[in-house]
Amino acid sequence: MDAAQLQDLAENLARNRRAGLVTDLPMSLLETEADALSAQSAALDLFDDDFRGYSLVATNPAVQRSLDLGSPIFAPIASRSFHDGLEHITLPRGMLGAQCELALTIGETYPFSIDPIDRQTAAGIVVACQPAIGLLGRRSRPTGVSTLMAIADFGLHVATIRGASHHHIDPSQLDRLEVTARLNGNVVARSTAGTILGHPLEAVAWLARKLASDHRQLNADDVVLTGSCLPILQILPGQTLSVEFGTLGSVSCRFE
Q1: Residue 124: its pLDDT value, please?
Q2: Average pLDDT, integer, range 138-166
Q3: How far is the C-alpha of 74 from the C-alpha of 175, rounded, in Å?
Q4: What's the whole-number mean pLDDT along residues 123-133?
Q5: pLDDT of residue 143
Q6: Is 160 helix (H, G, I), strand (E, B) or coil?
Q7: Is 167 exposed, middle or buried (0-12, 13-18, 19+ CB in 10 A)?
Q8: If you average pLDDT over every residue of the chain, what do you get?
């Protein structure tokens, strides 16, 4: 994909995200992961100039299958799409659904220069945890290689709604959290946070390894959205999604 094509694609992705539109875009021109990441970065720069951390998608096998992704993907979180305590949100076109996830706040630069990047070292840098609902969607109609499309299209991130923050947590025990999702009060899914790569901290380690391979790091105050504990939940205007995360508390949002 040449530079002019990449810039044109990025401009259209950013335009569609701002306007809540889905159109036909030349995603089939993406040939490599490097192309997809370049398109994502350029689109994000056009969409916002402030970022809060990273959103992960497809960290659980059920989500990988439903989105036709062979592995997890990630993207920076634009601040304008990141909400604390939001009670309702208008759904744009192109919605894929909601993921019920954890928002982990990082306390210091990671990875370190000499320590391994694994669950144990990741546990030492997580200083807070919040229940979260992540909304996923597309800005382009599907064409080309699904993983490359998803990466370029903001990593499929639309918006994040966080619940109350918990600072007194034992990160090593997060996989034991029982997660229950309700739509309009009716239970639609149950699982544990251990479905996230076997443990939510593995999502932090996975992301840190990906960043390190590109000579980047997580920084203090970054938020890592772990990807969903449950299958992607289909949501419609008029519905309210409430998700309980055991002792961590709950988060809910009404969709319009």
Answers
A1: 94
A2: 92
A3: 21
A4: 96
A5: 78
A6: strand
A7: exposed
A8: 95
Categorise residue 174: left if φ over 0, alpha if ψ from -120 to 50, beta otherwise: alpha
Sheet with 240-245, side-by-side order of all strands:
88-89, 250-255, 240-245, 178-183, 186-192
Q: Which two tokens stand for residue 33?
A: 């992961």
The token pair that represents 112 in the structure block: 């370190």
pLDDT at position 89 over 90:
yes
Q: Is 13 helix (H, G, I), strand (E, B) or coil?
A: helix
Cα(38)–Cα(76) distance, integer angstroms: 13
Q: How far apart are CA 44 and CA 40, in angstroms?
A: 6
Helix axes 33-47, 3-19, angle to 10 degrees: 50
- Which pLDDT band holds residue 179 (cuts at 50, 70, 90)? very high
Q: Are strands 178-183 and 186-192 parallel, antiparallel or unpaired?
A: antiparallel
Q: How confident is the model at residue 40 (pLDDT cuts 50, 70, 90)?
A: very high
Is 17:154 a contact under the CB 8 Å cutoff? yes
Whether residue 113 is predicted with pLDDT greater than 90 in this model: the reply is: no
**Residue 94 in contact with residue 106, Cβ under 8 Å?**
no
Q: What is the C-alpha to C-alpha distance for residues 148 and 95, in angstroms, rounded to an integer? A: 18
- Residue pair 14/48 in contact by the 8 Å Cβ criterion: no
Task: Give burial (CB, 10 Å; 0-12/13-18/19+) of 184.
Answer: exposed
Name the residue type at position 12.
N
pLDDT in tens, 49-59: 999 999 999 99
Q: Is the CB of residue 251 less than 8 Å from the CB of residue 135?
A: no
Closest CA to 58 of 49, 70, 48, 50: 70
Q: Which two tokens stand for residue 94?
A: 């192109």
Which candidate, 35, 31, 33, places its Cα nearest to that of 70?
33
